[in-house]
Amino acid sequence: MNKTRLYLYLLLLPETALLAAFLAWPLLLVLWESFFVEGNLSHANYSSLFVKNLYRESFFTSLALSVSTAFLGTLLGLPVSYAIHRSGRYKSFLMALTSVPLTFSGLVVGFAFIVLLGTSGFFTLLLKRFVDINPLEFSAFLFTWRGLVVAYLYFLVPRMILTMTVAWSNADWSLIEAATSLGAGRRVILFRVLLPMLGPAILSGSSLLFAVSMGAFGTAFALTGTAVKILPMVIYTQVSDMSSDIAQADALAIILTVTTTLVIMIYERTFREKRSPFP
Amino acid sequence: MNGWKNGVELIAVSKLYGNTYAVRDVSLAVREGEFLSVVGPSGCGKTTMLRMISGFAVPDSGEVRIGGEPMKGVPVRERRVGIVFQNYALFPNMTAYENVAFGMEAQNWPKARIENKAAELLEMVGMGDRAGAYPRQLSGGQQQRVALARALAIEPRVLLLDEPLSALDAKVRNTLRFEIKRIQRDSGITTVYVTHDQEEALSISDRVALMRGGMLEQVGTPAELYAAPVSEFAADFIGVNNILRGTYLGEGRFAWNGRVFVVEAQRESRQATPRGTAPGPAAMTVRPERLVPAGLDLKDRRVDPFNVLEGKVVGKVFLGPLTRVALSVDGEMLLMDILSAAGEPLNVGDPLKAYFDASDAHLL
């Protein structure tokens, strides 16, 4: 091993130690404990996902929430990212503005939505002045999983925008010009040139949104408490309640981690294979 | 309009970017089947000119015609121009074959015809055996071959090449240069070739258009540009040149650094530039290969005793068949190209006499 190499490994050491102590070790611990029921080795904590309605429902609510936010976030983020990419001298300002929501804690975002759209929220009362609405009925949706979709988009759309703005500026526009000169119309260019070119970035962005919203906790906690059963919330109740079941919480956490990792892995796979058909 | 069927005409075309002219009042006609190169330093407007022909840029004034038809309002995709880009611009998600077939598919050609034509074109550019390869599996030269086939597939009226070889290494560049020329000659397609490499332009073009600051400096055959540049810029940009600034005395006499040369300005038709005939401050150019070491080659020449320069060798570069010698004459440096095999080897510091024939001097 030469000297440069050695130095490189030394530079990696703090990060490796940190990851080992605070990611790998706890994860292994969680995995280990999740297989014990009252001191005996068992898969009951996992099979309970299929047995207990609460767990199954929370899993599917989380999936529905994450798929919806990933889909809507992508849809909303795409045009905005293109506009920012083309905004010339305002670009860096708009990029900075886009990053602001990412700096807020999830709890703050949750409370912000209560203040703005809650039963006595600013927009709710403003709307009440002009239209005959019942504030209670109007803001009820905010405290369901659909309301969470709206709130999550607040911090997910910026992630999509940031991912895509990079993709737009890395895009090879001469491909579009080549296609145009060859007589291709808008539709052909969209499906055969533009989407294949941006597809990987779009997929990467949306799988990021999916992963983030699978694990998000603060916003949901502020808005709905433990009323909307999503996976992170159920894990939380298992850990915090009087009738806590740490092993069960461990199993659910593993399920959450595996699902999220799987989605990202599947994305990586398809993306890689699309890119180089003959590796 | 015979002979113009697939020609390109630019009529007093100008293009402004902000407050500066990228192209200013350019008029140029490319005949059907002609290979015309547009050459010039970067920022001279050559690429903008090409983009106005293809339709990606719209002239602020003037007119572009292809095949005699005004192109105003005609979108790129209906102009039938084949474009070859500097960065190849092959679709990375498609094989070589699919790239070539793309344009024909977009234009809904019958399937059998697409297959035949794509195979035929790949064969023509020497890529017949790599039809299934993706761009990333091909070298730069191979990618550009595919790009050429793709551009020709739509049977364009005009082929436009924008610095197609500048991303390639010297050897590939040379091979591909002549491949492009061969394919162009065989297909007889009107071609506009943009490059910053004057040597490239001279070696493959029927005519060369030299641009400077958005305007045409000179248009002519490679031989004309080389032998009779119209300006110091042209003399300097095309090939290697010695430019001697002095005074034209009239009657074929040119004064430089206290010497007087015989330049025969009146006799040579190729020197019929306005400045060449009127006495006054002028510049004289003589190509390095036209400076001959006096004493080696003088026997069979009618030596004009005026046109001998005495100097000292201050540097030399071996170029293979030629050796380029830097000769210092009265503190000014002149370049001369001498056959490497000729005579005794020259060394730095040696005194050397250089001679040039009056007909090899060119007045500006």
Kindly summarize this structure in a few lines.
By secondary structure, chain A is mainly alpha-helical. Chain A has 13 helices and two strands; from the N terminus they run αββαααααααααααα.
Fill in the keyword field for this structure.
heterodimer, A: 279 residues, mainly alpha, 13 helices, B: 364 residues, alpha+beta, five-stranded antiparallel β-sheet, 9 helices, globular
Describe what this molecule looks like in 3D:
The complex is a heterodimer of chains A (279) and B (364). Chain A is mainly α. Chain A is built from 13 helices and two strands, in the order αββαααααααααααα. A two-stranded antiparallel ribbon of chain A has the order 1-2. In chain A, a hairpin with a 2-residue loop joins strand 1 (36-37) and strand 2 (40-41). The longest helix of chain A has 33 residues, at 53-85. Chain A is globular and about 70 Å long. The mean pLDDT of chain A is 87. With 364 residues, chain B is of the alpha+beta class. Chain B has helices at 46-54, 96-106, 111-124, 140-153, 170-187, 198-204, 222-227, 232-237, 274-277, and strands at residues 8-17, 20-30, 35-39, 61-66, 69-70, 81-84, 158-162, 190-195, 207-212, 215-220, 242-250, 253-256, 259-262, 280-286, 292-293, 308-318, 322-329, 332-339, 351-355, 362-363. A six-stranded mixed beta sheet of chain B has the order 6-7-8-3-9-10, with helices on both faces. Chain B has a five-stranded antiparallel beta sheet with strand order 13-12-11-14-20. Chain B has a five-stranded antiparallel beta sheet with strand order 15-19-16-17-18, with no helix packed on it. In chain B, helix 5 links the parallel strand 7 (158-162) and strand 8. Chain B is globular and about 75 Å long. Chain B starts with 7 loop residues before the first strand and ends with a strand. Mean pLDDT of chain B is 86; it is low at 266-276. The A-B interface holds A 172, 174-175, 177-185, 188, 192-193, 196-197, 274-278 and B 54, 56, 76-83, 85, 87, 89-94, 102-103, 106-107, 134, 136-137, 150-151, 153-154.
